[in-house]
């Protein structure tokens, strides 16, 4: 698992560099680059938007005034973890009545297909289904 996360970890490391050199004049540019770093790290668009909007709100409200403050307060990490730890609504998965059921997943590169399929396979197996690739 640790090795598999290398790409995401490397992409998120860019955020540290951005915060190091960020000043108030570059706010929009830096926030957009932070957003891009989350997206290429497989966070997905909905979660990325929540994290970035919350960061942007804190900056414009004057709660965070520099990249150094953001790093020191761990605001970005706390915010990200808070969003990721909230449970979503439980949805019922309805599979076809014929066996075997074939599911096809389509999406853009880096859109989280592999991650989503892993979660789906885990869920189906835990519900007693036979999962094959």
TrEMBL record:
Domain (SRP54-type proteins GTP-binding) ranges: 100-129
Localization annotation: Membrane
Boundaries of every Signal recognition particle SRP54 helical bundle domain copy: 31-71
GO biological process, one term: SRP-dependent cotranslational protein targeting to membrane
Cellular component per GO, a single term: cytoplasm
Topological category with respect to the lipid bilayer: Peripheral membrane protein
Main location: membrane
Protein name: Putative signal recognition particle, SRP54 subunit, eukaryotic
Lineage: Eukaryota, Viridiplantae, Streptophyta, Embryophyta, Tracheophyta
């Amino acid at each position: 698992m640790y090795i598999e996360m290398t790409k995401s970890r490397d992409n998120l490391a860019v955020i540290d560099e951005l915060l190091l050199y960020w000043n108030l004049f570059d706010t929009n540019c830096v926030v957009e680059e932070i957003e891009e770093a989350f997206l290429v790290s497989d966070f997905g668009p909905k979660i990325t938007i929540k994290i970035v909007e919350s960061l942007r709100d804190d900056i414009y409200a004057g709660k965070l005034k520099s990249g150094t403050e953001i790093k020191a307060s761990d605001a970005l990490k706390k915010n990200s973890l808070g969003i990721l730890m909230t449970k979503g609504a439980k949805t019922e998965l309805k599979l076809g009545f014929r066996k075997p059921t074939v599911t096809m997943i389509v999406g853009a590169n880096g859109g989280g297909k592999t991650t989503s399929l892993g979660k789906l396979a885990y869920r189906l197996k835990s519900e007693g289904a036979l999962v094959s690739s």
